[in-house]
Design a protein that fits this description.
heterotrimer; A alpha+beta; B alpha+beta; C alpha+beta; A: alpha+beta; 5-stranded mixed sheet; 5 helices; C: alpha+beta; Aldehyde Oxidoreductase, domain 4; Aldehyde Oxidoreductase, domain 3; 3 domains; 19 helices; 28 strands
């Protein structure tokens, strides 16, 4: 079976790649495009470590096929910072020590950014339910939630 | 003489004797003296015991000193996860 | 408490004890940090494992010829590629593991002993070809009856896993093999006499299910073997020196020829202290003469890497009317999985450790069954036994009409108490944690119907162990720290702060890395709550060398005698009359003239850290049960735990919060569910239900600090204790909310609803 030839936009850059039918977007990002910031935790869409934005929508890239993204816009963790300037969420995560091992952190940051793009004044409950698709085993979520809420507050001010 | 107590299964290797008064001045000497008294115990002292001297637990520490009035326990080794 | 004997900057500032930004943080929030599966080598092959579909079977034959003939397959390995190992016990996590068992767990030999047991492995040019190759391997199994449950496995007529397993610790030694590997026991005083003195005796039996450590990152390894046998390995592990030792042993290599790099690690909790893929990747790479990369799927992680034990625990406690515990007994039956080595020994030792009881008798059994071999999980063994004990303590409080905190205070271990496992405690913080909880607003908040409050205490011994670090002063005065214990949760931040304070340099001028096995002397793995404790201790040693060296150089430069100079507050300072002639010199000053004054400046710390102090904790939880669905919501949670000295408060808080939430999952939802066919039914994150953000509230933390006199900064390890109290605290809160004492974990909604329905309580 011939591979598919796909053209898409990743973090603002035009990309072109070949992929097998069964390859997921996560496989393509990690193995073909060398963007290893999105992580594989389960391959079944249950842990959120592979979270990316697809045409502005938060998705698990392990549940999207590489051959589905032709002509579409993908944003990954690698695109969060702008040059040397970290996104406010990235800064707050560091300030709050909202990461321990860090494997889930890219997924949480992408998901957190997606939330704040829709709602810059979420309640704690709204933050927790929005992030319920992202598993963390190290932190117990406390500092992650605080970091997201404080980022929202800072972004509202600024 | 330091008072030495074996904890747990170790006393099974000494025919039930769990308490000793020994003149050992280091863990190394202690193990040597115990092994002399009870060869079956001696083999086990190399693979997985901790030694508590006056309340402080030591692991893998042959050179640790033992005083004449020390209270010493030989325990199963402890690690973690 | 250890104080500022030179531990500060020239301006008096300390970094230790403050909330610095972790040095590896930017890479972690940008996706740049490289975890196990992020490493690749040019020309690498993909390795995959063929696993037994049967929980128990004799492996009659393995025919790999068709797989080997498939284009793109470059190597296949089976039991034939691994030399058998003689019986020899080595420490592996908290368990003594036998290499004869290790080689069989890595690759099955005579039998497949659990569903998921590796039977063969292939390396191919693509994932698709590797998968096809596995299907072409023809294994002939003779399926045998299996046994899963620990009590079932102990029966004399149970299916036998190993015909050379004779119970150790029983007199006389049995002449028939069984599934009971070991019997362990600790005894203090006379429990029979003690129970006679009791006004109240409570005896209960509890059951827990195996739970997985649940690290989000699956196991991953990348190996490349040269023609002369030199091996390089990248692996996600808690202990790369241990991995090196295991691989060298299993593959017959010189330790010096194996170089292991610990990648960033996406969670371990004890589960990444053993080897699974590494020996396979090395063996395949050796055969294929190309690098081989192997990553486990989530299903493989559940089916083939060690969870912790499930167990049956019987507890009997006696107390006088005024609440004094006079006798305590317990019998613990822990499942080890396919090979011996459950954490029953520490479970036995921890069970009554928080209490000062004259008469204690605890027996434990280590039992094998057809499940994956158990691996360490955060305070291995302790959460299970302390769940049972703390439940009974709670029942005693209720029956005697005593406040549960007061009852624990009355019996609490303190400095000088003889622990049930032998030695007397030094200074410890249990009473402080109980008092802190009692003073919280949380403890004093009223509850509503269907809400309940529970409290429980717990501890872990903590360890030190062999540790090597290297400190180098670079030419510009920046400091490079090479440590050898993988950073699983912020270690580098704490270590950098210690280096900064020891040498009087700004925090951001210290760059810590975790070096590979070729860069340092031996380091025992990260585990046992030891990496901050031991690492900081080793740094102090290395810093001492540097300070002594700089004083010696100053003497030469200033033509002074040793008693005319001293290191203080970040500089070598001239004393007395000399101070009028020369100015103090900092590390940066010396760095500029290092070559001219003798050569590069550095120090090493190579220690076997002793003096680890136990960390006690008390947890308080409020929860609410929905009587119509059986669902439990955690409303509020407070952790009080003794850190000795918190080098970095945020990462200490993080350990308390993370452990508490793992405990919440263990208590309320997590369990391995097996069918009667011996196969795991919930090998994925959907049905192996770990807590998510919407399941838990904020976890409040109280950092108690009863300094450890044996550590230069007073540090106690903190990583493991947090998972010990939650099970008991939550079970106690459930009883408070429903009036029902749950003696089986998890207290998942179907089980809670069933219990409520049986009592006619399942209506709001």
């Amino acid at each position: 079976m011939a591979k598919h030839h796909i053209e898409a936009t990743v973090n603002g850059d035009a990309v072109e790649f070949l992929c097998e039918t069964e390859e997921t977007l996560l496989d393509v990002l990690r193995d073909t495009l060398s963007l290893t910031g999105s992580k594989e935790g389960c391959s079944s869409g249950d842990c959120g470590a592979c979270s990316v934005m697809l045409d502005g929508r938060l998705v698990c890239s392990c549940l999207v096929l590489g051959c589905e993204v032709g002509g579409r816009k993908i944003d990954t963790i690698e695109g969060l910072a702008k040059g040397e300037t970290l996104h406010p969420l990235q800064k707050e995560f560091l300030q709050h020590a909202a990461l321990q091992c860090g494997i889930c952190t890219p997924g949480f940051l992408v998901a957190g950014k997606a939330l704040l793009e829709r709602n810059l004044n979420p309640t704690e409950t709204e933050v927790r339910y929005w992030l319920a698709g992202n598993l963390c085993r190290c932190t117990g979520y406390d500092k992650i939630v605080s970091a997201v809420m404080d980022t929202a507050a800072a972004m509202r001010k600024g | 003489m330091a008072r030495v107590v074996l904890i747990g299964n170790l006393a099974q290797l000494t025919g039930g004797v769990a308490e000793f008064d020994l003149s050992a001045t280091s863990v190394k000497q202690l193990f040597a003296q115990l092994a002399e008294l009870h060869p079956a115990l001696g083999r086990h002292l190399d693979d997985g015991v901790a030694v508590a001297i006056d309340g402080q637990i030591y692991q893998d520490s042959l050179l640790e000193p033992i005083r004449a009035d020390s209270e010493v326990f030989v325990l199963p080794q402890i690690a973690g996860g | 408490m250890a104080e500022t004997n030179g531990h500060s900057q020239a301006n008096g500032q300390h970094y230790v004890g403050t909330r610095t930004i972790r040095p590896d943080g930017v890479d972690k929030v940008t996706g740049r940090a490289r975890f196990g599966a992020d490493f690749n080598l040019p020309g690498q092959l993909i390795g995959r494992v063929l696993r037994s579909p049967h929980p128990h079977a004799r492996i009659v034959s393995i025919d790999t010829s068709k797989a080997e003939a498939l284009p793109g397959v470059k190597a296949v390995v089976t039991r034939a590629d691994f030399a058998d190992q003689p019986s020899e016990f080595i420490p592996a996590g908290e368990m003594m593991m036998n290499y004869k068992d290790v080689v069989r767990n890595v690759m099955a030999r005579e039998k497949a002993l659990y569903e998921g047991h590796p039977v063969a492995a292939v390396a191919a040019t693509s994932v698709a070809i590797a998968r096809r190759a596995l299907k072409l391997i023809d294994v002939k199994y003779e399926v045998l009856p299996h046994v899963i449950d620990v009590v079932e496995a102990m029966r004399p007529d149970a299916p036998l896993l190993h015909d050379d397993l004779f119970t150790v610790g029983v007199e006389p030694r049995p002449d028939k093999p069984s599934n009971i590997a070991k019997r362990v026991e600790i005894k203090l005083g006379d429990v029979e006499a003690g129970f006679k003195k009791a006004d109240l005796v409570i005896e209960r039996e509890f059951k827990t299910a195996p739970v997985h450590q649940g690290y989000i990152e699956p196991h991953a390894a990348l190996a490349t073997v040269s023609e002369d046998g030199s091996t390089e390995l990248w692996t996600t592990t808690q202990g790369h020196f241990i991995v090196r030792a295991h691989c060298a042993r299993l593959l017959g290599l010189d330790i010096g020829r194996v170089r292991v790099t610990a990648t960033e690690i996406g969670g371990g909790f004890g589960g990444k202290t053993v080897v699974y893929l590494e020996p396979l990747a090395i063996a395949l790479s050796k055969k294929a003469k190309r690098p081989v990369k192997m990553v486990m799927s989530r299903e493989e992680v559940f089916k083939a890497s060690g969870p912790t034990s499930g167990a049956t625990v019987r507890v009997k406690m006696g107390a006088t009317r005024d609440g004094k515990f006079v006798a305590a007994a317990a019998e613990l039956k822990y499942q080890a999985g396919a090979f011996q080595g459950s954490p029953v020994q520490p479970g036995v030792m921890c069970a009554y450790a928080p209490y000062d009881i004259e008469n204690v008798h605890v027996i434990g059994y280590d039992v094998v069954s057809n499940r994956p071999k158990v691996a360490a999980y955060r305070a291995p063994g302790a959460p299970i036994s302390e769940y049972a004990v703390e439940s009974v303590v709670d029942e005693i409080a209720k029956k005697l009409g005593l406040d549960p905190i007061e009852l624990r205070m009355m019996n609490a271990a303190h400095e000088g108490t003889k622990a049930a496992y032998g030695p007397k405690f030094g200074p410890i913080g249990l009473e402080e944690t109980l008092n802190s909880i009692k003073k919280t607003e949380h403890w004093n908040t009223p509850l509503r119907k269907w809400q309940g409050r529970g409290v429980a205490s717990g501890f872990w011994f903590n360890i030190g162990g062999e540790t090597s670090v290297s400190l180098t002063v670079n030419e510009d005065g920046t400091i490079s720290l090479v440590a050898g214990t993988p950073d699983i949760g912020g270690l580098r931040a704490s270590l950098a702060a210690v280096v900064a304070d020891e040498l009087g340099v700004p925090y951001d001028k210290v760059r810590p890395i975790i070096g590979d096995t070729g860069s340092l002397g031996f380091n025992f793995l990260t585990g046992g709550s030891r990496s901050t404790f031991s690492g900081s201790m080793a740094i102090v040693e290395a810093a001492k060398q540097i300070k002594a060296d700089l004083c010696a150089r100053a003497c030469k430069l200033w033509e002074a005698k040793p008693d005319q100079v001293e290191w203080k507050d970040g500089a070598v300072r001239p004393l007395g009359a000399l101070a009028e002639k020369v100015k103090p010199m900092t590390v940066v000053d010396f760095a500029k003239v290092a070559g001219k004054t003798g050569g590069p400046i550095g120090g090493v710390g190579r220690i076997n850290a002793q003096g680890a102090g136990p960390s006690f904790g008390t947890h308080l939880v409020d929860l609410e049960v929905d009587p119509e669905t059986g669902r439990t919501t955690i409303l509020r949670y407070t952790v009080a735990q003794d850190a000795g000295k918190a080098l970095h408060p945020a990462y200490v808080e993080g350990q308390y919060q993370g452990g508490a939430v793992q405990g919440i999952g263990w208590a309320l939802n997590e369990e391995y569910i097996y069918g009667s066919d011996g196969k795991l039914q919930n090998a994925g994150f959907l049905d192996y239900r770990m807590p998510v953000a919407s399941d838990v509230p904020m976890i409040d933390t109280i950092l108690v600090e009863v300094g450890n006199p044996k550590h230069p900064y007073g540090v106690r390890g903190v990583g493991e204790t947090p998972i010990v109290p939650p099970l008991g605290a939550i079970a106690n809160a459930m009883e408070n909310a429903t009036g029902i004492r749950f003696t089986e974990l998890p207290m998942s909604p179907p089980k809670v609803l069933k219990a409520l329905t049986e009592k006619g309580l399942n209506k709001a």
